[in-house]
Amino acid sequence: MRRVFIGVGHGGSDSGAVGYIVEKNGALVIATACKDYLIANGVEVRMSRYIDEDESLREKINECNAYNPDLCADIHLNAGGGDGAEVFHSVIGGKGKILAENILKELEAIGQNSRGTKTKVDTDGTDYFGFIRCTNAPAVITEAYFVDNANDVQIGDTIEEQKIVGQAIAKGFLRTLGITSNNDVPVRQSPAENGQNTAESGQKVGKIASIQSTLNSRYGFNIAVDNIYGAETHTALVKGLQTELNKQFNAGLDIDGIFGPLTRNACVVVEKGDEGNITYLIQAMLICKGYDLDADSIFGSITDSKVKEFQKNNNLEVDSLVGKNTFEKLFA
Ligand SMILES: [Zn+2]
User: Structural domains in the chain?
Assistant: First the structure.
């Protein structure tokens, strides 16, 4: 299987360029959409970050080289008031140059103007950018548009547009890998209620995939629908809980995906007979942690027995009430 590594520019305390939008946020949406499109077309993908967090360039390069991809890109957005897309590649040329050209072609296909492919060379003649110089795979740095140009930013100043930019970059990868991209692939199809969906798109199906899809549509997230419970899905579940606590109980929490003391204090007791989105999130987290039940948003007798099992396994009081301690064990 072909592999692509996608670096996500900036993150955490490093916002990158700030204009009409913030670079680190746009880069994450673009990179995630690129990843989803590649996965839907049968490519394996790893991203340098899946959430808003700090990451050094050195870490990113090490992670990329350890993953050993066929191709890699670092996703950035431009600043300085220019107009159009540019993609950097190695001064050596080769596959990286072809990738840069293909990405630009696809960005032009969605209506963006091109400033051309570029190289940036240090005084010693090597590539100036560490991501291009130190990665083993052919590498590019994409600058799809200028965040500080009121006109140019319009190609990607909404989430929906940023997803289209990410898909264009993905098509540039596919073209370079010799894979015919299937435009009809539904990248974000919702698995059926019972999780028995067709897998034509390459999207995984199953209970966790169904939960991931529901989190995306209910809370506007863009997490991978890969049926794998990892940090990204965990954070999304915590954010979902924080959103519900704010909406239903005016908890006033930051939606930061971290189950800290404030979130703990805001949790209210959930028990048998309850139903709704918080019950759904409890069921979802139990499923993610390996318990066999359905997420139907109704706290019935099966959920009740699984909660008790979870409490017993975690040395909690087995009372079948999901209170602050049980919430903490589930979500922290
Ligand atoms: Zn940048």
Answer: 3-177 (3.40.630.40), 207-331 (1.10.101.10)
